[in-house]
Amino acid sequence: MNMDVALACRNNNIQPIDLVSAVKELHMLTSEELSKLIRDANNDIIQWTAHDGSSKQINVETLARYLTCHLLAKLLESKRDEQLFRYLLAGLRLLHALCDIAPRNSKLEQVLLEDVKISEQIFDMIFFVILVLSGFRQESGLVLLHSAMLSCSLYLLTAFVSTQWNELALVLLAHPKVDIFVFGAFSAVHRDIQFLQVRLSGQYSNTAEIKGLCQHCEASLQFLQSLCQQRFFRERLVKNKDVCEEGGILLLAYDIMKLPFCEESSSYLMAVVSRLKSKVLSILLHLCEVESVSFLDVAASTSRGLNLAKSTIFQVLELLRTMFRGDLNALSDNTTYPRGLLQLNAMRLTDILSDDSNFRSYITLNFTEVLTTIFLQPHAEFLSSWCSSESEEEEDATLDYDPLSASGWVLGVLTSSDVPESTFNASPVPPTSYAFQRTSLLVKVVANLTCFIPDLCKEEKDLFFSTFLQCLQKELPNLPYGVPNDSRTERVAIITQNLRSLFIHAESLVPGFLNQDDVQLFRLFIAQLEPLITQEFSIARVTEANSPLEESNQLNIYGPQTFSGRGVHESDGDAQNVETNGLVQFRKRKRNIMNHLQISMIEQALQNEPDMQRKSASLQLWAEKISLHGSELSSSQLKNWLNNRKAKLARAAAAKDIRAASSGGDRQGGSGTDPDPDEFFDQGVRYEAGQIVGLRDGEGEEIGKGCVQQARGSWCGTNLDESGLCVVDVTHLKVDKWSNLPHPCDATGTSFAHSEQITGVKRVLWDSSKLVPQPPKSR
Fold this sequence. Notes:
- This protein is of the alpha+beta class.
- A hairpin with a 5-residue loop joins strand 1 (about 45-50) and strand 2 (about 55-60).
């Protein structure tokens, strides 16, 4: 804190103004009561009768102008005990009430909302209070006061700055002490979570205190979550060494994920804990979205950070394990219990981690058992859980926090009956969208783990398949010698049946929820797993009557017939609804931490030095070179970018090989009839720049026409030859221009309209196999 401000506060505190009486008496009033007192004041002099019967008065402007400095002086000079904390909370409650009245009172508005000097003092007071709370180590009876002071201090920012989170985030980022605020806020919330952890795991009989602590913890965490939803704020947060590199955010996440659900003692506590876990996972997901600096790279940059990250991830995987085994059931009488949203956020994070070179092998070793559990479900149950559009409506519950009521109850101003029940602003997730997102995330995780990149991680060769088989062996019943293997055969047959059903369903989710590469890699997983199962468990191959084609025909009721045509368009609409509700579908984490010039420099350098990621000297040299032309990169960041580039190319190449093999197999044993034109174009027509083409979607429907701009070489970091893509300028579009692109990137954006905003034309990346040559226009 600025010592000049501290000295000024001490000096202001000496003046003959009875601010102590004002705080002790006026904080007990509601905003409405205080507003009436101010309206009835003569010459802006508030008058009231104290508890001892004496008459008190103070000028409205004086109260507003000196209250902040007075509270700061008390914090600096007094012993930090219960008496001080109660007094400061009373002062914060009074300040909240004054800020609430300010827009309707010109005097208060001029002082609290327009006076720059007073605003700076309020910022300093809030930041200093939070910093003090972050270093608080006592238990005793101050826990409830600690949590209430923190939440009231945080939400005071929305009271005097803005209730719009984007505006508040920009104001905070412009403040010179923002990094101190961020560190203090996360540390102080972590302290409250630790207090809550002790009370939930112990034999505390004071349920009212625990409920109050829960409410304050959720409000404070929700405040940080709302800030992290703002792009510029989370970009600044990832660069905060104390919070990210030193593990501050991961320590908070770890302790929240370890909170017990208390399902046997209280449905209220179970719901609160679920929301806390969901919100902290949401924060991690937002940090993983940052492109300028990779949060996962920062977290894994030290051995301590890497171990802490793995410990946190383990808690997330244990949560999914519990949920998928059915040990945790949703409460039918509590609509704000977000089990579905918590599960989605946990799966989203698992999807991102399984596609990251820092954590892919860890996910393989610790999540594969969960996958085998899922795929061993009885077929009817599996279809209902993973191949259906039906699910109960899920809600994203946002706590509607009232600092005046919350602090009033802690201070004894309000009784429990006077405090309204916690209310929530619910954003329902459409049931169909929730079911499709859940299924798509499962397919993505399997696709990520299936993709093997030899040049990147030789030690991971066959790791996923061998681990899967080990987990399968563990899950299957241990039959005594001589007993027929019918039970084993039946269980393994269930896996095959479930996987094929899921593949059919996954195809129907392209392109709304899945991209074609993920589906083809999932197909590769099935194709490679079946012979391994046959070999491992000595099970005869499926008879001709149960061939994949026959099986597919039998399961069509759960596949494309249910979700094709109009149903796909409905799912796209549901996705739009989800996006407006703040539950944006988390796509694969983009690694575009460099601009186009930097990418071009690296692409050119890779032609002469393809194994750059293995040479530390080269990495350091090129990291320094390209940092002169854009964002500053470390050698470790460049190495991870190169590794993920290889992974992306390998995924695209694998998917292309699968498509080629699939279409080649379909053409074997021709019927002698005329070739299908769509099948003909799937055989790899080579396109040239300037060629007019039609664009088809995942359903094979033509959605527009355009002109090929580039068909070979590298374009904005994408190898067109290896990925099987072309750069196309779309000239005619039959679908909505805001439709999602199958291959979004920095150069094209995420939709046709976004691309037009960036480049001036609808320039997109499109699969060569989904382009149809058009006859040239007649002159």
